[in-house]
């Protein structure tokens, strides 16, 4: 009897041990399953060769965005006129002889290194009167660059000079402009070849009006129309309006500050120190046309507007066209006074 009781006790202890072992196995299995599930739900982290056995932390979302921006900036720099190029002008262009110089800075002939394209390189100093303009999506741009960005927006006008790209520096900015070849500004052309004949003047006038209408449609007031700011191809008489350094945004109200060339300034500027964009543009257009046809300015002094005198060889039609530009301005000025 005692022997049977001993056997029953041994069986119960074995069963209890088996249950304990099973429970321990289940717990270990559950912990292993949790570990596997956790490992699957956690992205694999890269191994860093910098320190043996070191697991580099995953980059944060902001770090990934920053690296993406840096990699995009390391690509080829932008060659659009809409923002400054990242490389230097000296690396991309070969500077040639000087084409002109003034209070704004200087302009040189140049060649693009990559394809030998003829260009003009304009250096503009940032002085105390330097103006910037906020352009949506591009931030602050030098006013001249911003105005050319506007007039170069599609659809472009073939009679307005193109800005190819620009470079920004703390004390100056550099503009890369197209340079038609051959070409010559109309002031120098007339000095070397004499006045334009009437057929040439008509072609120039129609292109200039189209260019100024295009500027108006882009909200830009050029403010310095004159023969020096018109490039002409002598073979085709095609022109390009250039130099927006005196320009400003177009507005309906009067301008109280003058920028441009006084010889082409409208009469009301000298009377009231104010003028409007449309009539002032018409006046400078008339003075320009007279200069191209007659070889001189229409008045001995811009402050004293008197009766126009024309050379005898000039047709009645051209006399009327020139007078109509001046009459438009005089009538507009009288209506405001």
Description of the molecule:
The protein has helices at 2-41, 61-73, 89-92, 143-151, 186-193, 198-217, 267-272, 277-294, 316-336, and strands at 93-102, 105-112, 118-125, 132-135, 139-142, 163-168, 172-178, 184-185, 220-221, 230-232, 239-241, 248-249. The chain has 337 residues and is of the alpha+beta class. It has two domains: 89-178, Phosphorylase Kinase, domain 1 (2-Layer Sandwich), CATH 3.30.200; 184-336, Orthogonal Bundle (Transferase(Phosphotransferase), domain 1). The relative contact order is 0.07.
Tally the beta strands: 12
Q: Which CATH architecture of the largest domain? A: Orthogonal Bundle
Domains (count): 2
- Per the CATH scheme, the topology name of the largest domain is Transferase(Phosphotransferase), domain 1
Beta fraction: 15-25%
Determine the N-to-C terminus distance: 138 Å
**Structural class from helices and strands?**
alpha+beta
Number of helices: 9
CATH homolog superfamily of the largest domain:
Transferase(Phosphotransferase) domain 1
Unreliably modeled segments: 22-79, 328-337
How would you briefly describe this protein structure?
The protein contains nine helices and twelve strands. It has 337 residues and is an alpha+beta fold. Strands 1-2-3-7-6 form a five-stranded antiparallel sheet. Strands 8-10-11 form a three-stranded antiparallel sheet.
């Amino acid at each position: 009897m005692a022997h049977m009781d001993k056997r029953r006790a041994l069986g119960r202890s074995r069963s209890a041990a088996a249950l304990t072992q099973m429970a321990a196995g289940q717990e270990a299995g559950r912990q292993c399953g949790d570990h596997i599930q956790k490992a699957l739900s956690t992205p694999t982290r890269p191994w860093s060769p910098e320190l043996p056995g070191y697991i580099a932390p995953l980059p944060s979302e902001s770090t990934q965005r920053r690296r993406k921006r840096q990699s995009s900036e390391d690509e080829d720099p932008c060659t659009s006129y809409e923002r400054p190029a990242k490389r230097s002008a000296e690396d991309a262009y070969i500077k040639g002889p000087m084409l002109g110089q003034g209070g704004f800075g200087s302009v040189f002939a140049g060649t693009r290194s990559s394809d030998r394209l003829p260009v003009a390189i304009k250096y503009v100093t940032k002085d105390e009167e330097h103006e910037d303009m906020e352009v949506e999506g591009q931030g602050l741009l030098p006013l001249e660059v911003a105005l050319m960005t506007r007039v170069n927006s599609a659809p472009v006008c073939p009679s307005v000079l193109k800005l190819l790209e620009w470079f920004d520096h703390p004390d100056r900015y550099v503009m890369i402009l197209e340079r038609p070849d051959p070409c010559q500004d109309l002031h120098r052309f007339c000095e070397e070849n004499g006045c334009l004949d009437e057929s040439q003047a008509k072609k120039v006038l129609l292109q200039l009006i189209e260019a100024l209408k295009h500027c108006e449609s882009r909200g830009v007031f050029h403010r310095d129309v004159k023969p020096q700011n018109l490039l002409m191809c002598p073979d085709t008489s095609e022109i390009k309006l250039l130099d927006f350094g005196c320009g400003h945004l177009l507005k309906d109200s009067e301008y109280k500050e003058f920028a441009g060339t006084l010889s082409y300034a409208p009469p009301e500027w000298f009377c009231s120190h104010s003028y409007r964009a449309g009539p002032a543009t018409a006046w400078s257009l008339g003075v320009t046309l007279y200069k191209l046809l007659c070889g001189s300015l229409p008045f001995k002094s811009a402050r004293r507007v008197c009766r126009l005198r024309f050379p005898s060889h000039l047709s009645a039609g051209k006399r009327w066209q020139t007078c109509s530009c001046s009459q438009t301005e005089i009538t507009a000025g009288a209506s405001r006074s």
